[in-house]
C-alpha cells in the first residue's frame, strides 16, 4: 500500500462514484477501478459495495476512510513543516549572547524575528567569545552576538550597530553638572572597566580611546559586566563607560549618564557572528532581520 492508493481510495470514498472520482484525479475509470480492487485484495476486505448509480462504503470501508483521512492530514502537515523548515520559517535558532547589548539591541532583533517567524523556537546561550566561536564551529549555536572579536576565516560577521559611549557618574560628581563630558576630563579619575575576560574586549577599547587623548586609564576595578560596573559607580568606586544600548535601559539609583563631548571616535561596534559556510534558510532569515535593523539605524 502506498500514498497514491490512499489518495485514490479517498477520492472514491468522498465522491461515491468511480466516474466522478476518476475525473477528479484526472484518470480514466479502468485504472482507478484496478487500483481500488488491488487495495481491497491487499487488505483482504471489501471497501465498497457496487451499486447501480455508484458505490457505497462498507463498514470496513467507513473505518478505513477515517484512518486514511487521518493519515492524509499527517502527511500534509509533515510536508508543510518540511517546506517551512526549508524556507527558514520553522525550526530552532540557538543564539550566543554576552555583554551589554542584551539590554536593548538583541531583544529588539529577537522580537522582530519571532514576530516574523513565530514557528521558530529561539534559545539563548550565555557564552564568552572563545565559547561562542567553539559553539559555532560545533554547530551548537547558529549565531552569536559580541564586540571586538578577532577575525576568523570560517566565521562570518554582520555589523549590527555602531554605538556611542556614555560616561556613568555618581549623581554628586563634579562632572555630572555638565550636559556632556570631555573624554579628557576622565584623566586621573578612577575607572571601573568591564568585562574582565575575552581580550581584546571593551576594556581595551576604552584604554585605546584614552591613549588617543593623551592619558592612561586609572583602573580601579575590572568586573564581569555593565550592571556590576554601574553598581560600583553608584557606591563611589569610580566612573565607567558604557555603550548607548546599556545607557538606554540600565537605571541604577545614585548614577547619571552623560554623552562624551569631544570624542566622535568613541564608539564600539556590535556584530552578529555565524559560520561562514552555513547555508541554512533559517540563518538567512535571521541575517535579513539584522540587516534591516542596521539599515534603519543608518536612516535615523
Automatic annotation (TrEMBL):
Q: Which PANTHER family match?
A: HCA OPERON TRANSCRIPTIONAL ACTIVATOR HCAR (PTHR30346:SF0), TRANSCRIPTIONAL DUAL REGULATOR HCAR-RELATED (PTHR30346)
Q: Which UniProt keywords apply?
A: DNA-binding, Transcription, Transcription regulation
Q: Which GO terms describe its molecular function?
A: DNA binding; DNA-binding transcription factor activity
- Tell me the leader sequence span: none
Q: Which family does it belong to?
A: Belongs to the LysR transcriptional regulatory family.
Name of the protein this chain belongs to = LysR family transcriptional regulator
Q: Which Gene3D superfamilies match?
A: Periplasmic binding protein-like II (3.40.190.10), Winged helix-like DNA-binding domain superfamily/Winged helix DNA-binding domain (1.10.10.10)
Q: Which organism is it from?
A: Sphaerotilus hippei
Is this entry keyworded Ribonucleoprotein? no
Which cellular component terms (GO) are annotated to the entry?
protein-DNA complex
Annotated HTH lysR-type domain residues: 1-58
| Matches recorded under InterPro entries | LysR_HTH_N, LysR_subst-bd, WH-like_DNA-bd_sf, WH_DNA-bd_sf
